[in-house]
Batch of 2 targets.
Target 1
Amino acid sequence: MKRIALLLWLSLVLPLAAASDAHREYDAMETYEPHVRGDQSLSGSYKHWAHPGKLDWRLAGNPEENWKLNWKFMDPPFNASVHGGHFALDRGEQLFRELNAKARFARCLGAGKAGLKGLRARYPQYRADLKRIAGLEEVIEYCAAREGRVLQNGSYDNSAVSLYVASQSNGMPMRVDVGKGVMRDAFERGRKLFHTRAGKLHLACSSCHTHKVGLQLRGSVITTPYGDAVHYPVYRTRYFLQSLHLRFAECNLDTRTQPLVPGSRAYTDLEVFMTALSNGYPVTVPSERD
Ligand code: HEC
């Protein structure tokens, strides 16, 4: 009798325990592995996307729209020579000059002899003064505060300065080294997050950005995760200048998942992961999206 009662109890409790853990389920990881070691940390996928006309369309989706999988920000009505991103860039330059009046701000961001050149391509990075890995926007907020200015991560002005700093690395390949140490750990955490289902719709980032690449979601072609980071912050015609973290929040909101604040640890880990996947892609700002 006791045994039956125990079996009954188990049959009730076990499925419940399993169900309550369901949100932690991992999505299958992609088989297309980036190389992430040391100086060879360039992900190596750029060659597949460098020439939109010559894409290897076995990678995904509808051949005619393949270029959109990575160069979505060049979707019409994109006009490279003038769009809202250029105004944001002007604003960023003006703010940067004010902040750097005493030449401290650039140094705080990590600029060496080469000035701002190449700086964007090395973020996110470990900051000894912050005792953590930080994205460029988080460091901009921190360094602006040291100059007595509030430039909240995620705000238009913060992203405008980030855009200006990025513009000084235009055309240079992204190269964050996730080969070892804390950066490697962050990369692995980011990778795990990217593949973990969450939210009311029970979706992982990879449910769309790996498995549904090339398909349309309400008229929007789902992009690969490769190369995205190089054109952020991006000017969105629909609303504002959007940092990568705000894009994460948008995808979280779209899939009914609790969004996090820009600069949160989880988003920074995701940023490390996605930026490593963009290693080798040239920094391309200002860019515009619908
Ligand atoms: C329901 C499917 C879905 C899920 C889940 C999803 N996204 Fe997206 N994501 C999209 C769509 C659709 C777009 C817009 C595609 C476009 O227009 O470029 C997008 C755009 C993006 C972009 C911008 C791409 C670019 O080139 O500008 C990034 C970055 C991104 N998603 C990251 C994430 C991350 C990180 C997660 C998980 C936290 C996630 N997404 C979850 C569907 C999804």
Target 2
Amino acid sequence: MTMKHLALLSLALAALSLTAGPVQASEDLAKKNGCAACHAPAKKVVGPSWHDVAAKYKGDAGAVDSLAGKVKAGGKGVWGNVAMPPQAKVSDADLKAIIAWALSQ
Ligand code: HEC
């Protein structure tokens, strides 16, 4: 491999880690705040998958704010009979980052 190829390769890797950065961070936030115990990106656990939540609120511009309020207060009856306990300890900044990420899944 020539030096030029090496330079191109490291540029490509840098670009990759840049695009992977924010996504990873929000997934980590979901773990840190305990959401991942009940929610996974692509399959139902205790709560709906992020993918299903994203599909349900697609096109709803106010979804991040309204869902943030619901998650803090707890929710029930939208997805079935299992309730989500109030998630009062998560900070608003973390919560909005997690929900915005979840809605992109
Ligand atoms: C103990 C399990 C549990 C934990 C922990 C949990 N959830 Fe949930 N979540 C649920 C269940 C169950 C539902 C479905 C509630 C319903 O049917 O209204 C739900 C629903 C949701 C919804 C959709 C709400 C709606 O009205 O459509 C969002 C968004 C959500 N959770 C985000 C989060 C976030 C963010 C966290 C972490 C801060 C979190 N959840 C932690 C179980 C959990």
